[in-house]
Amino acid sequence: MKKGIICLAILAAVSIGYTQPGDLVWKFKTQEWVSSSPYIDNGRIYIGSCDGGIYCLDAKKGKQIWKFETSYLIYGSPLVVKDKLYFGSYNYSLYCLDTKTGQELWTFPTGYSIFSSPFFWNDKLYFGSRDGSVYCLDAEYGDKLWDFETGHEVFSSPFVWRGKVYIASFDKKVYCLDAEKGTPVWSFETGGEVYASPVLSMGKIYIGSKDKSMYCLDAEKGTLVWKKDIGAEIQSSACVKDGKIFFGTHSSNLYCLDAVSGETVWKYETGGMIFSSPTVWNNLVLFGSHDSNLYAVNIATGKLEWKFTAGAFVFSSPTIFDGKAVFGSGDGYLYCVEAGTPGGDVAYSSVSPMDVISSDIDISIPQGAGPDPSAVAIVIGNKNYPSDIPPVEFALNDAKTMKQYFMNTFGIAEQNILYRENADLSEFIDLFGTKDMIETSQVYKLAKSKSAGTVYVYFSGHGIPGLNDKKGYLAPVSIKKFNAEATGYALETLYANLTKLKAAGVKKVVLIIDACFSGDSAAGMLLDNVSPIVAKVQNELAASDIGTVFLATTGDSYAAWYREMEHGLFTYYLTKALGGAADANKDNTITVGELQEYLPKIVASESMHLMNFEQIPQISGDPAETVVKLK
Questions:
Q1: Lowest mean pLDDT among 274-283, 354-363, 375-384, 453-462
Q2: What is the pLDDT of residue 614?
Q3: Residue 354: CB partners within 8 Å, gap ≥ 6?
């Protein structure tokens, strides 16, 4: 009888389609091995193959949308910026394609093959070539702006931080170049050829060398902070997360080091050399090995959680999408496997150049007075919208940074933060509830389970006006811009539900919105052919019952970007203020009143300087109320 029940339960589970981490979702066959790492954007996967093709696939089904043929191998990872796809080929060329059609827009020739993956910054592209040079191109037209010659081939991929390009060469050196001019700022020589790409965290550069050492350098000065002898060559680029460094070696081991001291935390041995650069997601570090496996190892313990066996070596680094890991293999397949529950933490890796954050507010995050176990936070960053709505270029940077400030400065435990990127309407409803039902929402459940004293809500993305009701809506990535009333999430509902949280026992609610509701944006008009006066929202700040509310704009102005710092202007100066810039009496306590005094003036002044218009934030709340206490 029991066996029958067990069999029926198993049959039911199979019928319903339950999956476990490590289960195959789909695979796609190319004609040669896939060493490139996939780039995923707006539900599409872009991947290069050594068959000379760059493929565009549907991310959910793994079906080909289009393919572009080059004449030779593609090793490097592609990059998508807006509607353009950039990648290098072993036929000596860097390509720019239209992401929708795969049509070639331009190519740029170099003197030898390209292994390096391009990096986009300030409308420019940066990459290295095996001809020994680092190139800077105009991203729109492909014109060369400058090049810098190293002493040997460049396999390494660059990144840009605070106006400086960091890259390495087979001449054994790590270089720091001026991003505008290409002139050298400093160089540091290791003991062997450098194949890996440098990565940045908290003002430090981490990079491995074929001299069997991992290096930590000061990013500003290029001086050695520490050096760790590993005993095996390092080709894998490192990934840095939460004070730990993860990288693979030729000795078949994945290492976890302490980022401050360089001491070994743990190592995990596989059955083959590790060229794949790891990706950290939630509590896992995922990476490939020459033994044909993709591994998922617990970042805290170094113990195996699950693995997936492909048909050949795995050099490709996995990219996380909707709880799934996508990666290539030497058997010519691109694989999509279950990684775990969707949502949760951001995926960090060394092969996601657009994820590198390059602002001073990200380098030195202030420490708060101590942990706040009764606080919870919801953080949403919405960047990618439908093709008829411009992206919010730095929304993900803003969201990632605010999450770190909530943890470090406000003292909120990571498990008490609900973090979402590119949230659609269903996710907004799941987080905040409908107009008549908050009790089933995630914020309500989390607040009740933690007996929350304070609930923080942060949103960076588009706001949009309802053309009929003249009310404001937060824009999910699924928004239909001429039908905000049906496809947006109403500010009115958000305010009402947050007020209900206070009625349910939450003592304080702090709402922060880096968006505007005029129908305009820093990237252009959202509502074409609509008068800004018609689109103007009535009663944006009808939120007196909530408590403390920060809005980035007033009236029909729009929320500016601080492009040099790669953040929204309001979020940038809000974090500066929280870090002490607004502390007028120097008592290490930031109050609502101090923020009301500091933020409108600095944001209005800087928006006029940067964009030639005046952006004035709105801040409501008790001026005497403490927002944060610093250590």
A1: 354-363
A2: 81
A3: 79, 81, 120
Residue 38 has pLDDT above 90, yes or no: yes
pLDDT of residue 518: 60
Q: Give the residue among 442, 439, 415 at the shortest CA–CA distance from 426.
A: 442
Share of the chain above pLDDT 90, in %: 60
- Scored b (16 or more CB within 10 A) or e, 6-23 reads eeeeeeeeeeeeeeebbe
Distance CA 295, CA 300 (A): 15
Report the chain's terminal Cα–Cα distance, integer Å. Answer: 63
The full 3-state SS of 584-610, as one line of letters, equals: CCCCCEEEHHHHHHHHHHHHHHHHHHH
- On the question of pLDDT at 346 being above 60, the answer is no
- Amino acid 74 reads I
| Residue 260 near residue 269, CB atoms below 8 Å | no
From 549, 548, 527, select the one nearest 540 (Cα to Cα). 549
Position 251 scores a pLDDT of 94
- Give the pLDDT score at 18: 60
Query: Nearest CA to 306 among 294, 314, 316?
Result: 294
For residue 223, the one-letter residue type is T
Q: In this structure, which amino acid lies at residue 176?
A: C
Burial of 109 (0-12, 13-18, 19+ CB in 10 A): exposed
For residue 150, which of 179, 129, 178 has the smallest C-alpha distance? 129
Q: CA-to-CA distance for 128 and 279, rounded, in angstroms?
A: 23
**Residues 363-378, mean pLDDT to the nearest whole number:** 84
Which H or E run contains 495?
Answer: helix 491-503
3-state class of 340 per DSSP?
Answer: coil
pLDDT over 50 (residue 612):
yes
Question: Comparing C-alpha atoms, which of 571, 375, 380 is closest to residue 456?
Answer: 375
Residue type, 281: W
The DSSP string of 424-440 is -HHHHHHHH-BTTB-TT
All structural domains of the chain: 25-355 (2.130.10.10), 370-629 (3.40.50.1460)
